[in-house]
Write a structure and sequence with these properties.
This protein is an alpha/beta fold and 321 residues long. It is built from 10 helices and 13 strands. The structure holds zinc ion (ZN).
């Protein structure tokens, strides 16, 4: 009986893959290096191989698989199954992902943006259970987001709705890869927060983090800022609060625009937790519309590292039904 679903989380560094049973419990999980530099065919062939290996190991057969979902970073066309552009994948332009995978497998295959599949996962199995108006933001090297409005995941004309990371926060600000400047994601992301710290150190402020990294400021991570914050480091506290305020202003705009019940904060940098989120909540309480902000919770994502795989599998099932 076809009761198993495959979820693939294609990241710039690793491919994470899992087979889920009908209760969405993983019966097997694997992670292998993406080797993105070897080009799209190499990456897609690796995904096919990991799937065949997982099916062999679990003694399942292809006929047991109901469908497969894949979360892919960057811009894509989910209905055509085409990955249009992906920032961390060289030579990755207009790749027919589904057509390529169809040469190996005959079960239904669906693709979507990595953040949006995380949103499906958190909505069905994580922090978003039971809500009809949800915004997920992921704080990693950049700021990604996905939106559910009145029970429906929002796509927009070119499937690029919800690019909150490119919301303009400053007329003239840090340059962004999108061609504009002053975008929210340039300030609120692991890279953005580290840059804020480095700016302060270059202006002569002094942090305990300098004792850890010496002269090489390029090794500073968002995690170090959390650690220095816990030790009472003034600059780390200032950076965390400043980052929280900018995120709070950005999310005030989101709340005024969309009236969500919950904003879920995920991604590696969300480990900063309440160090960051308390300032976010305070800024929202002071600046967003009262009726909307009082109805909106800000909480951490629950699925962590597995969000991409569970989300991709969840998404595939929703598309199938
Ligand atoms: Zn931008």
């Amino acid at each position: 009986m076809k009761q198993f679903t495959i979820g693939i989380d294609l990241g710039g560094t690793n491919i994470k893959a899992a087979i889920f049973n009908s209760d969405f419990k993983a019966v097997i999980e694997k992670s292998i290096p993406t080797e993105a530099a070897m080009g799209p065919k190499h990456v897609l062939d690796k995904i096919a191989k990991i799937i065949m290996d997982m099916i062999d190991t679990t003694k399942l057969s292809i006929s047991d698989i109901k469908c497969m979902g894949m979360g892919i970073p960057g811009l894509l066309d989910p209905s055509e199954g085409v990955s249009i552009f992906s920032p961390n994948f060289p030579n990755w332009k207009d790749i027919h992902v589904i057509n390529h995978m169809k040469t190996f497998f005959d079960f239904p295959i669906f693709i979507d943006n990595d953040v949006r599949v995380n949103l499906y996962g958190e909505w069905r199995y994580g922090s978003g259970i039971g809500y009809q108006n949800v915004v997920l933001i992921t704080l990693g090297t950049g700021l990604g987001s996905g939106i559910i409005n009145d029970g429906k995941v929002i796509y927009g004309k070119t499937s690029s709705a919800g690019e909150i990371g490119h919301m303009n926060m400053y007329r003239e600000g840090r340059p962004c890869k999108c061609g504009s400047s002053g975008c929210l994601g340039r300030y609120v992301s692991a890279v953005g927060m580290v840059n804020t710290l480095i700016e302060k150190l270059n202006n002569g402020q002094r942090s305990i983090i300098q004792d850890w990294v010496g002269a090489d400021l390029s090794t500073i991570s968002a995690k170090m800022i959390s650690e220095a914050y816990d030790l009472g480091d003034d600059v780390a506290i200032e950076v965390m609060h400043e980052t929280g305020r900018i995120l709070g202003f950005g999310l005030s705009n989101v709340i005024n625009l969309l009236n969500p019940e919950v904003i879920i904060v995920g991604g590696g940098m969300s480990a900063a937790g309440d160090r960051l989120l308390n300032t976010v909540r305070e800024t929202i309480a002071n600046h967003a519309l009262k009726l909307s902000s009082q109805a909106c919770k800000i909480q951490q994502a629950q699925l962590g590292e597995k969000a991409g795989m569970i989300g991709a599998a969840t998404y595939a099932n929703e598309r199938l039904n």
